[in-house]
Amino acid sequence: MTVYYYHNIPASAFYEKWKKGLLPGHLLYGATHLPELGIQVIYHRPVLTPYRWKLSLHTAWVIWRQRKRYDAVYASTFRGLELIIFLRAVGLFPHPIICWHHQPAVTARNPFREALARIFYKGLDETVFFSQKLIDDSLKTKKIRPDHAHVVHWGADLEFYDRLMGSMPEVCHRGFVSTGKELRDMPTLVNAFNRTKESLDIYICKVDRGFNYEQLFNSLSLHSNVRVHYISGNVIDPLARKVYLSACAVICCRESNYTVGLTTVVEAMALGIPVICSRNAQMPMDIEKEECGITVDYGDDKGWTRAIDYMASHPEEAALMGHKGRLLAEKYYNDRVCAKEIAAILSLGKLKS
Q: What is the pLDDT of residues 210-234, one digit of tens each?
């Protein structure tokens, strides 16, 4: 079986960097290990454009032109894949489509858009979600078919992080670190650390998805124990090293309806570092139940302060949390488990060529 792997990032270039050990494989949602499971992969080369219509037209042309080379389309996002999905929905595209759905499906307020969406979802043969909560919320719209919705364990490339840790022997884990950028609640995090003497290093880009973090930090009062470092470019490896050097990773997010912060959580788990994370019902794992960290309600800066103080005053317990997180990553949340579960979905009778 051969699948066409679609992502709106340069997947083929990412794959080449993964082979050289420069990037973690989980960025490609298990595709790197599919050949080991008997599934060959053709990687998409997207056009780089800010215009979604242009992206969708280019994607449709490239995927249609190569349709005789593969048996199914495996996509990590439907952004840019819309035209092919609509063609599948009306019976004009010949191959099954399995696609990740990062947010819950919702009911559009506009009747015309809702009608289009119902046609659109008929073009997804199998839909993959990060958690059961995302599926449950999506099923309420009646656009997702329950027998075609799947939870897949998405997690870190453990081999990548093992190499990284192996290159940093005799590390002394100190302080707290924040490395994520999407929907981060920095006022709550800063206010919490301002009440403590614990060291916090924040690594973040100046602007993310139109949100100006540099402007935000200029408006906040930061105590001397809180330091902000602005980043740009490919910083996956150096930031992972910062997380590994820390005693705890902090993931303070604004409220959302999807798994904001999950990438940072699975990275910390792979590195054996405990986390303090905003309590997000959409997460696939229960961080406190699994004893790999502490969760705090959205916007609860006093709760964050209590969690910070607890981690700092219980270093042995914090280290044990990190160890349990690593064990959880080894069992469920890694790219090889992800690949096996995706392969099982691709190998369903209805998807076989």
A: 899 999 999 999 999 999 999 998 8
Cα separation, 200 vs 104, in Å, equals 33
Q: Which residues contact 150 (CB under 8 A, 6 or more apart)?
A: 126, 127, 128, 129, 341, 345
Cβ atoms of 181 and 250 closer than 8 Å: no
| Residue found under tokens 């905003």 | 278
Paired residues of 184 in beta bridges: 253
Tokens of 179: 């490395």
Q: Is 183 left (phi over 0), alpha (psi -120 to 50) or beta?
A: left
**Is the four-CA dihedral 340, 274, 307, 206 of positive or negative sign?**
negative
Token pair listed for 29: 């949602």
Q: In angstroms, rounded to a whole number, what is the distance separating the alpha carbons of residues 221 and 351?
A: 56
DSSP states of 284-302: SS-TTTTTSEEEE-TT-HH
Would you place residue 351 in the very low, low, confident or very high pLDDT band (cuts 50, 70, 90)? low
283 vs 251: CA distance, rounded Å: 13
Q: Where are the beta strands (DSSP E) in 103-260?
A: 126-129, 149-151, 176-178, 200-204, 207-208, 211-212, 226-230, 248-251
Longest CA span, the chain = 62
Q: Tokens standing for 201?
A: 């290093």
Residue whose structure tokens are 């579960």:
341
Condensed to tens digits (0 to 9), the pLDDT of residues 45-92 reads: 988 888 888 999 999 999 999 999 999 999 999 999 999 999 999 999
Q: 9 near 46, Cβ under 8 Å?
A: yes
